[in-house]
Amino acid sequence: MTEIKGICPIIAAPFNDCGEVDYQSLENLVKTLIKGGCDAVTLFGIAGEYYKLDDDERKKMAQVTIKAAKEVGGKTIISVTDHSTEVAVSRAKYFESLGADCLMLLPPFFLKPGAKYLYEHMKAIANSVKIPIMAQYAPEQTGVTIPPETFCKLEKECHNMIYYKIECKPAGPYVTNLMKLTDNKMKIFVGNAGFQLIECMDRGAIGAMPGCSMYDVYLDIYNSYISGDRQKAVELHNKLLPMLNHIRQNVEQIISFEKRILKKRGIIACDYCRKPSYDTDEYFDRLFNEFYDEMSKRYGW
């Protein structure tokens, strides 16, 4: 079964100036991330504006992403975000048929189903496919809490329920709890833009799923850490935090600035975000440019 670890960024949804999906930019983005050293790319994450796409766009984006990743030897994680179990199962089978390497599950949250129903939903999807499954736990965005015991039960009962993306706040204690309950068997990824990357790796995480615009920065931190130079990893992470603190004060905000960075780096053609989106101001832009210039000099963007 495919192994996934390391930095697996969330793909931004590129649009043109008219708000249509720019599939050429999507292909270039996927190939840039894989060629740049990312172990896998993740499509339809929360920061990927999946909730602003129609079904036809989602299907074509999945096709383009999987094909582009395979052409350069990369892996794909495709998120299943449907609130109906029946539809989610169908979607999971479709993504598997396209050649996805892993599926990420964002459990239903609109009507706040209880742990029993969330467990049944995730188990049904895991049992419908053969490829690895990753469960996403994002209570800040969904408003739905899931006890770690639910994930542990799924891990024991579903052979392909392997990975877990944890982005609650604070994430550290939840990660430690999961590791203790499973004798350190859980394979955990860090979310939340990698704010807690160092701490969660100290607690046993095997990778992170941040935004994609600064993928090389995250790779630098991760590679320093796994090579044994934790001090360098901490120093690099500390240099990233001012930018993250500035651009991630809400989800639409980081989506907007992620795309701005991608455009400035020449990876996508346009930084358009579908409405409703985030409106910035002159001071915020000036401060962003200061942080960007510092990062650009350091990484040669």
Task: Give a quick set of tags describing it.
8-stranded parallel sheet; alpha/beta; 50% helix; 301 residues
Topology:
Layout: E1 6-7, H1 23-35, E2 40-43, H2 55-71, E3 75-80, H3 85-98, E4 102-105, H4 115-128, E5 133-137, H5 139-142, H6 148-157, E6 161-166, H7 172-181, E7 187-190, H8 197-202, E8 207-208, H9 215-226, H10 230-247, H11 251-264, H12 282-299
Parallel strand pairs: 1-8, 2-3, 3-4, 4-5, 5-6, 6-7, 7-8
> Fraction of residues in helices?
40-55%
How would a textbook summarize the main sheet?
8 strands, parallel
Beta-strand content estimate:
5-15%
Strands ordered across the widest β-sheet: 1-8-7-6-5-4-3-2
Note the run of SSEs as H and E: EHEHEHEHEHHEHEHEHHHH
Mean pLDDT: 97
Specify the structural class: alpha/beta
Give the total of beta strands. 8
The number of helical runs is: 12
State Rg. 18 Å
Q: Uncertain segments of ≥5 residues (pLDDT<50)?
A: none
